[in-house]
Structure to design on (319 residues):
């Protein structure tokens, strides 16, 4: 069970991307990483993406001890935003195409964002010289979307509570609690709230939960872990340390800017999370294989991709 993996600190979560609606890529990611030993998968909250992940598990021939989580956000959460280009302001310089880490921008008769591939990292908007790109929230109605996903047999719902609107956070959290009885995850970082308010918020959210039925996802800087550096993982460790020191009756997961160096640095800081979640870095190291059209029919390529994925997953899940 997922709870056992967390208790044993043997949980590795692959973040396919809360905004990643590319079903083909998700199927490839889940196939590669489940074969590499990854046991927990974070998915965009869309039925077709949960189906894609399940196809990936079937392709890998793995039906047990793999757990699926869907992520839902709140207004202000970067994970559920999509880039939109204002054609009036765009001067067609091409900078956004070269900077997008997820190949989500294409040049046709005009520059366009492929919504399904946009993961909301904001890199294009930050770097556009004409400020022609806006990040637009894609808030979903939980009552509409979650029952369909629960019916499909998900194991966890992750709530991105990165917002200063306390009332909205608690209302949505209560709503999710009313819809799902299984493991819930709260994703929070220190970007909007100071340590004191962050701790108070989580304590309040946990007050309506039974002990150890919740994972606190201690986020660093979302989608910043493209490279294998100590620096990008630092904030996730600091956030995890805050929750660890607070001794809450919940599991702690590190995420956001995480990579192969995260657990080593966490250990040096005496931070010992129950789970490591990796997104941007995990996707980047197998990108070449994700772009391959014949991955599923080419056993050599698949074996190579799995070996690369294993070099990351093995940090948590040993052979
Ligand atoms: S970076 Fe901005 S101005 Fe340049 S092509 Fe992209 S949207 Fe247009
Ligand atoms: S750079 Fe990030 S936000 Fe912009 S289109 Fe690509 S994935 Fe989306």
């Amino acid at each position: 069970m997922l709870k056992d993996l967390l208790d044993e600190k043997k949980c590795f979560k692959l973040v396919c991307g809360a905004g990643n609606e590319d079903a083909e890529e998700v199927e490839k990611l889940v196939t590669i990483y489940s074969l590499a030993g990854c046991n927990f998968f974070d998915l965009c909250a869309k039925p077709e993406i949960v189906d894609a992940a399940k196809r990936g598990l079937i392709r890998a021939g793995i039906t047990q001890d793999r757990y699926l989580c869907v992520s839902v956000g709140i207004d202000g959460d970067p994970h559920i935003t999509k880039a939109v280009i204002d054609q009036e302001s765009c001067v067609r310089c091409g900078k956004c195409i070269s900077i997008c880490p997820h190949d989500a921008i294409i040049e046709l008769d005009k520059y366009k964002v492929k919504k399904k591939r946009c993961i909301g990292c904001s890199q294009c908007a930050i770097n556009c010289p004409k400020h022609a790109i806006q990040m637009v929230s894609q808030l979903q109605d939980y009552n509409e979307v979650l029952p369909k996903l629960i019916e499909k047999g998900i194991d966890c719902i992750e709530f991105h509570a990165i917002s200063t609107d306390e009332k909205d956070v608690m209302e949505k959290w209560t709503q999710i609690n009313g819809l799902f009885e299984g493991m819930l995850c709260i994703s929070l970082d220190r970007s909007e709230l100071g340590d004191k308010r962050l701790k108070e918020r989580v304590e309040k959210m946990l007050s309506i939960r039974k002990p150890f039925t919740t994972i606190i996802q201690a986020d660093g800087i979302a989608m910043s872990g493209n490279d294998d550096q100590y620096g990008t993982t630092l904030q996730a460790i600091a956030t995890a340390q805050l929750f660890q020191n607070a001794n809450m009756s919940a599991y702690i997961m590190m995420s956001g800017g995480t990579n192969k160096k995260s657990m080593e640095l966490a250990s040096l800081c005496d931070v010992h999370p129950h789970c490591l979640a990796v997104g941007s870095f995990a996707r980047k190291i197998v990108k070449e294989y994700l772009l391959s059209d014949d991955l599923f029919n080419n056993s050599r390529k698949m074996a190579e991709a799995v070996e690369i994925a294993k070099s990351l997953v093995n940090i948590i899940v040993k052979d």
Notes: The mean pLDDT is 93. The first helix runs from residue 2 to 7. The chain has two domains: 2-75+140-313, 78-137. Residues 212 and 250 are 5 Å apart (CA to CA).
